[in-house]
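Encode chain A's predicted structure.
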Amino acid sequence: MSLLNQLERKLYKFRIQPFYKYLIFAMGGVYLLNLFFPTFNLIYRLSLIRDRVLAGEIWRLVTFLFVPLASNPMYTFLALYFYYFIGTTLEARWGARRFFLFYLIGALGTIIGAFITGYSTNTYLNFSLFFAFALVYPDYEILLFFILPIKMKWLALINGLFFLSSFIYQPWSEKIAIIISLANIILFFGGDILNKIRQTIYQWKRRRQFRSSFKK
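Encoded structure for chain A:
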């Protein structure tokens, strides 16, 4: 955490303003342009493809951030709204500089992952925002399917299990790329997660010892 604090202090020489809402608007704009002008292949032209970057299309190192989250119009709208909410909420909670640092580390990890596998998207970067929100606001409730109230910590656990299952069946190059692309979660929350796991294991052992002694 001290390293992160040092990096954040270095950013104070720069005037960093809240930016995430503009990124979401850019995603929405790209989706609409691709929807109305599909022959231009805008999504492909913006995607992070290693061979195209090495061929000189260096803008892909940034423009992959603007690629929308899905292809279905309704799902895309809901996903953009959801990520707008969690992203701007984290940005307000942490401040523009700390949020920028979190997002930058995740973006750099995604780029490194693309150079390992040949291709990458902003999917895991967006996942990192979701997991960060769940760690900061574990008891925040949302309406799943607009009907079922569910706390973010349980939703994150469900998504984490699906994420883990898909991770297991990926080749090692994909595994490494995924881990690197989630470097921001590891750096920002790794210590807290390990402490939470230790506390859970410790409490479980204490309860087990208590039950064992009670049975005697």
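Residues 26 and 61 are 16 Å apart (CA to CA).
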